[in-house]
Every structure is written in C-alpha cells, then in structure tokens.
User: What shape does this take?
Amino acid sequence: MAEEQCTAIVAYEVTAEDREKFLNAWKKADDYLKEQPGYINSSLHEAASANPDFRFVNVGCWASADDFRNATQSSGFREASGSLEAYPIHAAAYEVVEI
Amino acid sequence: MAEEQCTAIVAYEVTAEDREKFLNAWKKADDYLKEQPGYINSSLHEAASANPDFRFVNVGCWASADDFRNATQSSGFREASGSLEAYPIHAAAYEVVEI
Assistant: This one.
C-alpha cells in the first residue's frame, strides 16, 4: 500500500499592496518548514484575477497529516512565521476524494 | 516555451451533514466541465480535520485561464452546477509563483 500522503492547503487573504511583503514573510516560514520531518514540497499559487478572496494559496505535500501539524505547531514555526500573522489564513490538512 | 497552464482553485463551505449532497452536486458539475475545451483534470480535496473553514477544495488544471472562465461562465455550467449554489464558494484562477 502506498504511504499515506497529506495535502495541506492554506489560503491567505492579502491585498495587492502587501504582495511583496507577504512573499518575503511566506518564504521565511517555508524555509523553516522545508527542514521539518515529513515535508515533501510546497507550491505557492497566486491569483490571476484582480480581486480574489485569496490572493495566495499554498498547496503543500507532507508525508502525513501529523507531520504537517507537528511542524506548524512547533515553537520554531511560530517564530519563523511571525510576519505572516498580519494576513488572515484558512488552513487545513486534506485528502484527495476518490469520486 | 511550455504552454501556459492555469490552476483553478475553488474552496467550498460545506457542513458535515451536507457532505453526500455536496459530493453528488459537485460530481454533476465536474462531469459537465470534463467535456469543455481546455479541461485537463480535477482533484477534489476533503479536509481531514473536524471543523475546517472549507470542507472541500478543488484544484483543477486547465489549458488556460480563459478556458476555465469560458467553461464556468457558460449557460451549460450554470445548469449543471445549480445544486452547488447552496454552498458558499471562493474561486479564482491561479499561477504557481516561482520563489
């Protein structure tokens, strides 16, 4: 059986003016996550339209939902992601539905 | 140069009680989209946690953002997706950020 993989989807509310500031903050947080157990990859998406509900959505792959939760609940992550707190986020671990 | 591809990310607010009803409605809409020009694939994700902001997030790949917009603004789609209107959605076309 294939190892269970977890997709973390995180949507960020960011204004057009804050784009560069957000990208710097996100990169710092992602650099921290890259070093944590179970991190596989991140794919940051930017909206192509003018006034999206979520300018950025990250689709991240982790070896398991526990790895994702452990990494993002660590004190190291709170420090690395401090600058992201300015942006309302909607985050959860997801699994692909077989339909 | 590779052809530009567009990722459509659509987040749905769905209660636990409405899960099955939503899945039926989503499948009907997706079956319509599958037949439209530029559709590449859909990957419906379901939250693994109890009270997510968005129980379902679809990550769809289209040949272009125009194809996605044309398909979802068609009268055929309005008909096929009528049962989805009960669920608040957040939809946009996205491009991956090189960071």
In short: The longest strand of chain B covers residues 39-47. The interface with chain A takes residues 6-7, 9, 11, 23, 26-27, 30, 43-49, 52-54, 56-57, 59, 65, 90, 92-97, 99 of chain B (CB under 8 Å). Residues 6-94 of chain B form a domain with the Alpha-Beta Plaits fold (CATH 3.30.70.100). The mean pLDDT of chain B is 92.
